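User: Predict the structure for this protein chain, please.
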Amino acid sequence: MQWKATAIAGALAAATLMAAPTAGAKEFSWAFQGNLQSLDPHGLFETFTIGFHGNLYEPLIGYDDKMNVVPMLAESFTQTDANTWRAKLRAGVKFHSGNDLTTDDFIFSWKRALTEGSDMKVPARKIKEIKKIDDLTFDIITSNPNPILPRSLLILYVMDKEWSVAHKTEAATNLKGGEEGNFANLNANGTGPFMVTEHAAGVKTVLKRFDGYWRNIASNVTKATFTPISQDATRVAALLSGELDMVYPVPVQDWQRLTDAPGVQPLAGPEARTIFLGFDQVRDELLYSDVKGKNPFKDVRVREAFAHAINVEAIKKKVMRDASFPTGLMVAPQIGGFVPEMNTHWAYDTDKAKKLLAAAGYPNGFSLTMDCPNDRYVNDEKICQAAAAMLARVGVKVKVLAQTKSKYFGKVLSQNNYDTSFYLLGWTPGTMDAHQAIEPLMACRTKEKGRGLFNLGGYCNERIYALAPMIESETDQAKRAAMIREVFKIHQDEVGHIPLHQQPLSWGVSDRVTVNQRPDNVLDLRYVVVK
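Assistant: Here is the predicted structure, written as structure tokens:
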């Protein structure tokens, strides 16, 4: 069968008809609160990084401005049997190096995404085997039927094999190892509409339009400069002064300020990202706690006590200025599989929390350290501080260790053996489907099968583990929805994590530009137009 043939054909026609860029140099400058710590497209599974890389590298299939799934490097993607998809690459696509895109480049990229330092094992492991037909055609073989495979490959970017081998960057960057030793960490060579001319991590990254890009795009930008600015006030001031054309996130308390100021405006809306708390449920003794000889979080009563101690409505009102959307699920309403009637958080009840702690053997509470980024999510450190204050009311003393996202992710991810006892994390399924929250976040961690890669605390229920691949391969939508609901019910009953809210999209934009604000909080330069 041809996967969404009509939608893909229509999108391809629309892409071909997009206006060519306006003559003359058009420069665009923007800032994000966090650093772009690597240019390696297989190095970090994190939305900002993946989104930025999407301007340099491309997948077989991608998103358009409405987040419809459309052809990118593959002009066709056809399911030939239950476990086989045939991809036909576009002829004439060039890498920034000038090399031609071929089947060998995709096969190389797939294998590279499976190397030890790669954070892209989740999509790469969906593929069992690739059979080369010719230089532009290949078959992707899966172990089981996988009707959502195209969505799973949206973030598997294609690298130039010849360039990678020449620069000895056949393996992906390992964040724990730092920037040295991997050429792809500091240099880029994709097929995307922009190419890197300057990159200094933590300082700025400069892009220029790639004249050899394979299609016309809406954007007229010829040069784009990204600057990481961690301080909220500095970011907003740079926008108001005209130094920058766009900044994000903008603190929700500054929305009115941008509304009132001439020449700028806030862009806001619900993001498809869930912010949640997680706990180490694997180790027999927590790494960072005064409880010795056992792990409190292995007791569901302790996890439930934490859930009842967190007042999500207070966080919404006091920290998020009424701009967040409290939740009881690990996925947002925009995600396929969302169950509205289950989207209820645990009741805020400190008395119940204290009783649960006492019943679990902690009548006086205990102390522990909480890992938290301070430049990744909207008001992330403030959320952690608020949660710590709430837990203090039930006797749990929390020390918040807030760090820049590069240090935070380098500490808590698999490359550093999940070095955390209690943490805050945010997640947007790149496929916009619940399975990409269930498999990486809620399924038991199994390195050999690639499940639970971002299940930092190691929550494990064997039924969820069994359901994850079934959900992936099920073609009957009613049966699939029932299995997703079952996963959510088990996860809520066991308090596998504590979902807090969906954060708001919060951008500030100059009137001299138009941008496309996607619900996954990605800036796609293909749609930026400078007036």
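Confidence is low (pLDDT under 50) at residues 1-22.
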